[in-house]
């Protein structure tokens, strides 16, 4: 489920399991009956929810002993690695984030604090917040630039000043290529991310 029809179109375009259904909707108004859901998950999304309304809905739709799992990543400590220039690449990446900081939505801070407030608001006694799980991914420079372009802060900046936003993107891309001493955007680098997870189980 997603509020964006474009996101749903992307999901439907991927060949997946036949028992998966995609639909448009919000986390605050789940189209499920009371006590009917075994597992409720959200990935890199819960920081955008209306906290109180979502938790009320989760409590309503989950079966007794049903589980809620909210996962995400904190971009504060992301690192890039490529040969011996990882520190320079990471510095460029953080510079972009700093440039976009004035355009960053307050909700992103909720993500960066690993849903601490949302976790505290969960009334289920059986709950856990796992704050640090490191994972490494291989990502092409092309896809990394595409990822930066999806940031809400970049999209806000782009709406306000399309040319400057595009210049920032191209300049960043050129800097990455220069530091890596490559010309192909398909060159892969290692991307180190820090994940977190909030788990909770509805009482019997």
From TrEMBL:
GO molecular function, one term: S-adenosylmethionine-dependent methyltransferase activity
Keywords, comma-separated and alphabetical: Methyltransferase, Transferase
InterPro entries: Diverse_substrate_MTase, Methyltransf_11
Short name of one Pfam family: Methyltransf_11
GO biological process, one term: methylation
Domain Methyltransferase type: 1-69
PANTHER family named among the record's database cross-references: METHYLTRANSF_11 DOMAIN-CONTAINING PROTEIN, NOVEL PROTEIN
Record protein name field: Methyltransferase
């Amino acid at each position: 489920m997603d509020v964006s029809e474009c996101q749903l179109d992307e999901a439907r375009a991927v060949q997946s399991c036949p028992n998966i259904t995609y639909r448009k909707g919000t986390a605050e108004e789940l189209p499920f009956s009371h006590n009917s859901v075994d597992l409720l998950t959200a990935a890199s999304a819960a920081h955008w929810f209306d906290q109180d309304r979502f938790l009320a809905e989760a409590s309503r739709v989950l079966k007794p002993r049903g589980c809620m799992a909210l996962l995400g990543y904190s971009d504060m400590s992301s690192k890039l690695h490529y040969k011996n220039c990882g520190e320079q690449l990471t510095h460029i990446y953080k510079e972009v984030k700093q440039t976009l900081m004035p355009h960053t939505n307050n909700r992103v801070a909720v993500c960066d604090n690993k849903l601490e407030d949302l976790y505290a608001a969960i009334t289920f006694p059986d709950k856990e917040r796992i704050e640090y799980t490191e994972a490494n991914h291989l990502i092409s420079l092309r896809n990394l630039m595409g990822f930066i372009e999806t940031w809400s802060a970049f999209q806000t900046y782009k709406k306000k000043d399309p040319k400057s936003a595009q210049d920032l993107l191209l300049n960043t891309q050129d800097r990455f290529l220069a530091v890596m001493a490559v010309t192909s955007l398909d060159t892969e680098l290692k991307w180190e991310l820090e994940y977190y997870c909030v788990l909770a189980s509805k009482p019997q």
